[in-house]
Amino acid sequence: xxxxxxxxxxxxxxxxxxxxxxxGFNVSDLTIAKIDISRQDSVxxxxxxxxxxxLVINTAAFHHVEVCEKDPVNSFKVNGxxxxxxxxxxxxxxxxxxxxxxxxxxxxxxxxxxxxxxLPNPLNVYANSKLSGEYxxxxxxxxxxxxxxxxxxxxxxxxxxxxxxxxxxxxxGEEKGEVKVVDDEILTPTFTEEIAAQIAHMIKENAEFGxxxxxxxxxxxxxxxxxxxxxxxxxxxxxHKALPGEFSGGVNRPAYSVLExxxxxDQELNILTNWKSGLKKYIQSYR
Length: 287
Prior knowledge:
Layout: E1 2-6, H1 11-22, E2 26-30, H2 40-46, E3 55-58, H3 65-70, H4 72-93, E4 97-102, H5 125-140, E5 144-149, E6 152-153, H6 165-176, E7 178-181, E8 186-187, E9 190-191, H7 192-204, E10 210-213, E11 220-221, H8 222-233, E12 238-241, H9 262-266, H10 275-286
Parallel strand pairs: 1-2, 1-3, 3-4, 4-5, 5-10, 6-9, 7-12
Antiparallel strand pairs: 8-11
């Protein structure tokens, strides 16, 4: 199978590329230098009959939440219209699109794990722009995968931010001997290698098309996640609870965005592990 992968040099995209190649897929790595999904001409030039993909995977996004809030036009150009541009290209080639979305499409008021049929209600510009991308894809294509993820981190640098949460917290802890983290946002941090493995498994097993929640099992607050980071590292760093909203950057975020991988489990395709095991693997292997 030939797969065109946008955002191939990003934190998630680089792991997906490596995992798919490991399974024998022919992957065309469309890096940020090779495609600008917000421009229709760039998409049509990069993804065409000459490339001959059987599937397009889109990991390209504008996902710095605070910056999106200040620049809604660019946020919607990339996350909304960018998704539409890719969907139109896939429709022209009569191939499916696998698109990465976010747990932030929910408002957190449910207070128990969200399943795919739950109604979204985004609270900020980033979340609204990502939801618009979902709607564009589902209205343009009949064959698509939309995968909502939660709190991702990986060994490769996040191009937009230059770090991931784990690395940033470890650096602060090593420098200061203590860190302060919010305890009022509940989610499920997920290691990108495990997401990549799940995507490869879905493709190999011919998962049915549609909307999926793809996150590690269990749940925690950012405070609990940080406590586990330093428990594994065992370096004596003290973790303090921040005040509610102390690090919000003025952006509304869902207080609860835990995802339940119901669609995967209904097909007996879920291979994601508990968030603690993914974190342990990441720290012991890369940090």
